[in-house]
Amino acid sequence: MRFPQGSLNATVAQRFFEAADATKKGLGGGYAVFGDEQIFLNAKNFEGKPYSGLDDASFQDGLSRAAVSFGNPKLKVSSFVNATIHFIGNDWQRSTIGEDYRTLLGGPDSELLRTLDEISRYYAFLLAKTVDTNGWAKDE
Hints:
Layout: H1 10-23, E1 32-34, E2 37-39, H2 56-69, H3 99-104, H4 111-134
Helix pairs in contact: 1-2
């Protein structure tokens, strides 16, 4: 969902999330916010069954209807895309710092892990910058 520039904050995101969930149960599974976009995922299990209980068309329809009826700020559906994402398991009792993940991703010296570590550091930098820019308390 794309909001007008500068209009998407925590309150607006939560308000739209609640409106989407009220429009169609199953849309209330969660969201992420990047800039002026609020992203909803219709995640599926290994058998292809959506955790939301909604097929992709119903999921998209619900979000579209929620967007039309939302009010201010006026938002648009930015796009619907299909992506394949695999959640890698980790035994958190035994591997408390994600060792299972690291092994499945090529081990501690893999190029992939070096790239992911770089992305992680950049994300942490952007998050800290956003916190400072918006004057948020570090514990919010």
